Model the fold of this input.
Amino acid sequence: MNETPEKTTHFGYKTVAENEKASMVADVFHSVAAKYDVMNDLMSFGVHRLWKRQTIASSGVRKGHHVLDLAGGTGDLTAKFSQLVGETGQVVLGDINSSMLKVGREKLHNLGLVGNIDYVQMNAEMLPFPDNSFDVITIAFGLRNVTDKDKALRSMYRILKPGGRLLVLEFSKPKHEALSKAYDFYSFNLLPTMGKLVANDSESYQYLAESIRMHPDQDTLKAMMNEAGFEQTTYQNLTGGIVALHRGFKY
Amino acid sequence: MALDQATEKTSDDTNISTFLMLPNFVLSLVERILNQALKLDPNVAHKLTTVKQKRLLVEVRDWQQTIQLVFADEKLHLYTADNSDYSDCMISADIDTLVALKNPAILTQLIRQDKLDLQGDLNIAQAYSGAFSEIDIDWPEQLSAYIGDAPAQQLYMHLMSLKHQGSKVTAKLSSTLTSLFQDELAVTIHPLELAQFKQQNRELKGQVAAIEQRINTLLNAITR
Done:
């Protein structure tokens, strides 16, 4: 009897079956959705707002654009994009996780942002849009949770319009040894404790730290984007490389 | 070539400003302040409706920074930018020239003097310049929400009086300093006066020596 070996992937430092990762990630985000914004501010000391500002600055989004904010979570980027594209533009807030979408929708409705935002639950590997649909796609702190990143990048490339750009904002590898050590100490000691105290969930934040370490570094991700078809791919290290903003174009 | 350069644009900037993302931080503060000002003077937002959703790029030459400015959804949005980014209007000048733009009438004069580069729709730059130069916040009205009508009005009058006195003092100081710098004042003494002073000093020294001599003689006479 020949049994096909089950394909595996990583979930933090654990190795799990590929078909299990999505539901495990979903569990993490169902668990943290309610306290997501508070924890973001707390964990990054508010700096995540500056990382997102840099993403918007690099997006070139303007009036009439169609924008996909993938893994958009609680809608920080969508809120700004919605204002910048105006009434003639459209923003799609996409997330695989229904709890995060729910929190995002409620937050944006409370901000009075309605009319040009759609909320779609979707898998980044199989984006439910026709070819050449969007001017800009962003995925902020989401790619590392995707099971098959290459497939997701190819899917994003497919739905981008020629001339459109993809921006990937994601945790990366710090450029300096001292910063790297301090960051490791913070991630594996303080972060789970903060998660335990504020969100009563240390495991999800342990996963966060582990998934960051398992995510491809700056140059590997750049190569993956090139492989998916993106051109003029560049990246910018933010806060010493703790986070990197990758940008690639489709022509 | 351009593609190669773009592909190789992998930022390894390690200076503290980049690490702390200072330009982004400063712009987020400025954005907050400007949006607060928009709320306090609704006329500004009204004047900016003509440039709604239009993108203005401002290159501040002496800071080597480019800023993008968009008025959308009744708010101003300020972000860092590259010069190559799309814009409806781009202006490039040093900070003094940009401050001088408060007066929209001198826009063409500054362009002629090569102090200001402008590409794209001139009306966008003029609209922003006009809106911010005429900003007029009704402070008593704003203050009255916190401390009541009468105290707000009194506080405002006091502050206006202080401001008036301050500007009077500043004007007086300025005119005094101007006359000091312009008039030919004897700040240092003339060489002849110095020579006379030295002569008097020598005479005084001689007299002191004579007195010392006499005192010593008297002391010697007493001790014997």
About this structure: The beta strands of chain B are 55-60, 65-72, 75-80, 89-93, 117-120. The interface with chain A takes residues 3, 6-7, 9-14, 19-21, 24-25, 27-28, 52-55, 68, 70, 72-73, 75, 77, 79-81, 85-86 of chain B (CB under 8 Å). Chain B has three domains: 2-133, 142-182, 188-224. Residues 28 and 78 of chain B are 7 Å apart (CA to CA).
